[in-house]
From TrEMBL:
GO terms for cellular component: Ino80 complex. This is Ino eighty subunit 1. It comes from the Eukaryota. Residues 304-317 have a biased composition (Basic and acidic residues). Residues 328-342 have a biased composition (Basic residues). Residues 232-244, 347-367 have a biased composition (Polar residues). Residues 230-264, 300-369 are annotated as: Disordered.
Length: 466
């Protein structure tokens, strides 16, 4: 596959410039005014009926807004700000053709450590979140048509077969672009005489942006519309604009060769340097976005970032608006604690209040008969950690009743099996085992284990202490 070298790869905090995006190419695609594409979905931002003829921009934006994975917040923002809708669609198209790496994210409040943040100043001139690449891809892949059941089109052969059967369009425009990207080598042989790859149209090559945009639109129309191969127009809406496709000819074809691929205009180095120039205002926007990202990271602890990474690995659909402020979450009050920070302890007959210690006292550690052991010194952090850590699940009353506060009278000793069973029933699964030191049985279990390890220390084949 020739797709992997075409993926954008940049370090964290590095902006995606106009050259990276090939912005002039995207602008030419989304500013084309030929209303020749059949939109199979109800329009989300206009009153035109389904199966009307629209521009590529309106076709693609409406496809994103009709995706089951598009959130209401995203749809409202796209309706409210048409410019944001166009910018979001541009970035989605780059994701659609495989240019955007799935580890990229584009909102500065990102907490996960498994993705890299990248400002996109050319597409972030309005409020609204561009989200991240996995979310964009899920929006595009969730779009289906009735013709996609029971089997979705996955190859160009499937699309051509449906076009020959007068099924127009054969598949959603987003799925068609996925197919074109996956079969880029076949596209190159069929339509470009192996001189240029389909994915090369979206990279920095010595070809004009306008000619590349026209070639892309020609390909999209050729495999999307039944009229491209001479089939009759099946639109039942006389008010639909069918100019350019009524006779079955591809409106983006070469004027000298009706139906043929449009020519690709080569550029000199001087002419290529005049395209995709970053204006000064976008350079300033990039600096501000990087500064916002660095400020956000400075307010986050490494533990918060790692927790965010675990959450994002499970769910790639987290959406945080770029213009939203990070609000601190209110701390939950543990069940069973009073206003004075006391815990209820069940001594078998009644519930008494005793102050819950936050740490093991130093005297308890110093009183250990194995305090001189070097192994025990390495384990000193185990005996001095906080009594319990925050958990999103409050302890039920019966679990608290089984805890014995350090310093109070200890119940009869347990066997190893009893202790293991009690730990399984009443320990917090979200807390680290080394943090659960409020239970005297846990501390006793650690001491017993240290006794065994210390007795083994120094015997063959144990190495000498370092």
């Amino acid at each position: 596959m020739r797709q992997s070298p075409k993926i954008l790869r940049k370090p964290d905090n590095a902006p995606l410039t106009r050259i990276d995006l090939q912005y002039d190419l995207l602008h030419s695609i989304f500013s084309d005014e030929n209303e020749v594409f059949t939109d199979p979905f109800p329009c989300q931002f206009d009153t035109i009926p389904p199966r009307s003829r629209v521009t590529f921009r309106n076709l693609y934006v409406n496809a994103v807004m009709n995706s089951p994975k598009a959130s209401k917040l995203l749809k409202d923002k796209m309706l409210e700000i048409p410019e944001f809708a166009t910018h979001f669609a541009m970035l989605s198209l780059l994701t659609n053709v495989g240019r955007i790496n799935t580890t990229m994210s584009f909102f500065h409040e990102m907490k996960t450590a498994i993705r890299t943040y990248h400002p996109v100043p050319a597409l972030q001139k309005t409020s609204g979140s561009l989200q991240d690449a996995p979310r964009l891809k899920s929006i595009l892949k969730a779009l289906v048509l009735d013709s996609d059941t029971p089997k979705m089109a996955t190859t160009l052969r499937d699309c051509r077969a449906r076009i020959e059967a007068e099924t127009s369009p054969p598949t959603p425009i987003t799925n068609l672009i996925f197919i074109l990207a996956n079969e880029s080598v076949s596209i190159s042989k069929l339509h470009f005489a192996s001189e240029v790859d389909f994915l090369d149209l979206f990279t920095q090559v010595q070809l004009s942006s306008k000619s590349r945009a026209r070639a892309f639109l020609w390909l999209a129309y050729n495999y999307y519309e039944a009229g491209a191969i001479g089939a009759p127009n099946t639109s039942n809406h006389p008010e639909s604009n069918t100019v350019g496709s009524r006779d079955g000819a591809n409106p983006f074809s070469d004027p000298a060769r009706p139906g043929g691929r449009p020519p690709l205009d080569e550029l000199t180095e001087a002419e290529a340097a005049l395209e995709n120039i970053d204006p000064t205002d976008e350079i300033e926007i990039s600096r501000k976005l990087v500064a916002q990202r660095m400020h956000f990271l400075s307010t986050q602890s490494p533990k918060d970032v790692s927790k965010g990474g675990k959450a994002s690995a499970k769910d790639d659909e987290s959406v945080i608006s770029v213009d939203s402020a990070a609000k601190p979450r209110p701390k939950r009050r543990d069940l069973g604690k009073g206003k004075a920070g006391k815990a209820h302890v069940n001594d078998g007959n009644s519930i008494v209040d005793q102050t819950t210690p936050s740490r093991m006292s130093d005297s308890q550690y110093r009183s250990s008969p194995f305090r001189a052991s070097p192994l025990l010194k390495k384990q000193s952090t185990i005996l001095t950690v906080p009594a319990q850590r925050y958990s999103p699940y409050p302890f039920p009353q019966d679990r608290i009743a089984h805890r014995t506060v350090s310093g109070s009278r200890m119940s009869p000793p347990r066997t190893l099996l009893e202790h293991a069973w009690n730990t399984l029933l009443y320990s917090d699964p979200l807390a680290d085992s080394d943090d659960e030191m409020a239970d005297e049985y846990c501390r006793q279990d650690y001491v017993e284990r240290l006794k065994i390890v210390c007795r083994l220390r120094g015997k063959e084949p144990t190495p000498e202490p370092t």
